[in-house]
Amino acid sequence: MKLAAIDIGSNSIKLVVVEASTSESFTVLASDRQVVRLGHETLVKGHIGDDAIERATKCLKQFRTVAERCGAERVVAIATASVRETNNATDFIRAVEEQTGIRVEVLSGIEEARLIGLAAAQGCTEKSVTSLNIDIGGGSTEISIFQNREPLKLVSVKLGAVGLTDRFLRSDPPAGSELNNLRSEISASLEGPVSELREHGWDYTTATSGTALTIGAALNHLAPLTESTVTLPQLKQLNQILASLTIAERHTVAGLSPQRADIIVAGGFVLEGVMSALGIESLRTCDWSLREGVVIDRLRASGL
To answer: Does the structural domain 2-106 have CATH classification 3.30.420.40?
Structure first.
């Protein structure tokens, strides 16, 4: 079976096309990612603008062409916070379907956490291990605890790198008061979820998606990492450095994607906040996330 999965996120839109005989094993035929910033100002205003819809549909047309060239029998497109938190989600879905032929499914935060956690559990964790995964997106953060590739706890928090940057970080570099307000927002938003998560234990921690992978890459240039491991002291030091730089200066930081230079401070602070609140001293970055979770889930549902 050939299947294409498209993740319409707040920062970027991502594609993966796979060929699989079972949900446990599949071959990637193609993958792509475009920074579309669907959540830019959208998460603050609660409305997707015409320009953002145009950027998204243009990207999705290109991704559908790639999927068809690979012989995909099915294209599954899912959207997250940048669509579910808006007042014109229906208009967005209609525009995408009319212009691309792709039907978009909007995920709840809990379902997003489940699919991401499933990917991290299968792609980056041994089956017998109870693992916690942290995924910081553009509009929300999903945290999951899995055991034997089944969820024990799923939470979704309205903390995302794009949304928080738009709300709090107006100066370049950010002012001290802005950073303090950002930390306070993160701390307050995590209070309830952290209490729920602490009711469960876990043996291993992973972090997925752009913020975590970017931080891992930047730290690896500062000092070689062991198995993509990020420690809390390393992260705190990196966050302090990045917050002191202008966006232009962040563009020159080795390992830091230029497209993420303006939102990495907020993303890094969320990761630091989650690790600190949950007492996590180190974690391993994982390059499987929502796209792969959608693939695994759909293959399971088809009986593979």
So the answer is: yes
